[in-house]
């Protein structure tokens, strides 16, 4: 009973906050921020960049580079398709809109068109330089006073993750998670309302990808509120006989960034306990394969709408191992120089 009363109070407080926000927003001018990139093997560092970029305005539009222009510039296509990379960006809760097929190198005319004709107020990029053929890609935005920078999230990059997939020793920088970044990613989370059906699903969520986000979207459709459990590193090792490529903090941030998730249970147990079911008022336990022990008649199998999974991603990496090794060495050296 006490839990239901607290939930009702939380819901009332939330409704009041939303009403006050609506009153304030009626007089606030919308400021649209633009960010763009390849976002291949998208990770929580990208999500953190989106979070930071959105704080510089009221709406964030993200352009996703086309595979053809990425291949033209880098000599090889990305690991994920255009559709998969757009799906990954769309699934991020900090993003308001996505523009596909953006050129990898935006010329001055393209940048000016964004600012003068497409409703973009500011272009935002990381604080690392973006130089192509000796020219600053964003010089036009800088000349117009419409360019802003954000700090990179240290300890993670696509180069770093590809190195982990390639099983290269010594390529990974340690990500140093803080309570502050966890709190920032937790913004907008809420308690379930008294009448809402709570759905629970747990997993490793290693190398969080569009297949994961599509699966979580399908799980959320089984109820009104989605609680996602993230297994600890040792739990994953017990189940898969190896440690995950990303540690618990990294995987929690990845799940928190997904727009279909209402809350996260950190270091979730492998087995479903009666305490877990009663504490969170779980009505349905979703799974993608074998029902977790303890789920009982609450278990519900959910088919993933996406064929992409961690195994297929790893297979793509392996099929291009030599090509990726060569590119990885070049990128890793550049990143090491940047972080030095």
- How far apart are the first and last residues' alpha carbons, in Å? 56 Å
- Structural class based on helices, strands and sheet pairing: alpha/beta
Supply Rg: 21 Å
Strand content: 15-25%
Low-confidence stretches: 1-6, 8-13, 19-26
User: Quick one: biggest sheet?
Assistant: 5 strands, parallel
Query: H/E series, N to C?
Result: HEHEHHEHEEEHEHHEHEHHEHEEHH
| Count of DSSP strands | 12
Mean pLDDT: 86
Count helical runs.
14
Largest sheet strand order: 3-2-1-4-7
Bulk shape: globular
Oligomer designation: single chain
Fraction of residues in helix? 40-55%
Key terms:
alpha/beta, five-stranded parallel β-sheet
Write a structural description:
By secondary structure, the chain is of the alpha/beta class. It has helices spanning 2-25, 44-54, 67-74, 82-90, 108-117, 139-143, 158-165, 179-185, 210-220, 233-240, 248-256, 274-279, 310-319, 321-339; strands at residues 32-37, 59-65, 97-102, 122-126, 131-132, 135-136, 147-150, 198-203, 225-231, 263-268, 282-287, 299-301. The strands form 3 sheets. It has a 5-stranded parallel sheet with strand order 3-2-1-4-7. Strands 10-9-8-11-12 form a 5-stranded parallel sheet. Strand 8 (198-203), helix 9 (210-220) and strand 9 (225-231) form a beta-alpha-beta unit. Helix 7 packs across helix 14. It is globular and about 60 Å long. 35% of the residues are buried.
């Amino acid at each position: 009973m006490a839990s239901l009363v607290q939930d009702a109070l939380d819901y009332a407080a939330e409704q009041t906050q939303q009403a006050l926000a609506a009153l304030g927003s009626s007089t606030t001018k919308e400021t649209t921020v633009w960010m763009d990139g390849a976002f291949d093997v998208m990770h929580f560092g990208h999500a953190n960049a989106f979070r930071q970029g959105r704080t510089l305005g009221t709406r964030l539009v993200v352009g996703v580079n086309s595979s053809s222009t990425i291949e033209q510039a880098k000599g090889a296509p990305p690991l994920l398709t255009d559709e998969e990379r757009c799906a990954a960006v769309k699934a991020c809760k900090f993003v308001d809109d996505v523009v596909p097929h953006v050129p990898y190198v935006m010329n001055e005319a393209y940048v000016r068109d964004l600012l003068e004709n497409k409703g973009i107020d500011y272009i935002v990029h990381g604080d690392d330089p973006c130089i192509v053929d000796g020219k600053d890609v964003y010089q036009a935005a800088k000349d117009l006073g419409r360019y802003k920078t954000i700090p990179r999230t240290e300890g993670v990059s696509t180069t770093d993750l590809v190195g982990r997939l390639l099983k290269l020793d010594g390529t990974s920088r340690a990500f140093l998670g803080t309570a502050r970044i966890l709190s920032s990613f937790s913004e907008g989370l809420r308690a379930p309302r008294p009448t809402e059906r709570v759905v629970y699903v747990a997993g490793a969520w290693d190398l969080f990808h569009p297949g994961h986000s599509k699966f979580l979207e399908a799980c959320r459709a089984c109820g009104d509120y989605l609680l996602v459990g993230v297994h600890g590193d040792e739990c994953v090792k017990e189940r898969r006989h190896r440690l995950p490529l990303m540690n618990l903090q990294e995987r929690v941030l990845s799940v928190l960034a997904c727009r279909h998730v209402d809350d996260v249970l950190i270091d979730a147990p492998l087995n479903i306990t009666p305490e877990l079911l009663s504490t969170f008022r779980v009505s349905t336990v979703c799974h993608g394969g074998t029902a977790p022990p303890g789920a009982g008649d609450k278990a519900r199998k959910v088919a993933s709408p996406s064929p992409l999974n961690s195994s297929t991603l790893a297979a793509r990496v392996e099929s291009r191992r030599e090509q990726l090794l060569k590119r990885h060495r070049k990128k890793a050296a550049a990143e090491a120089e940047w972080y030095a």
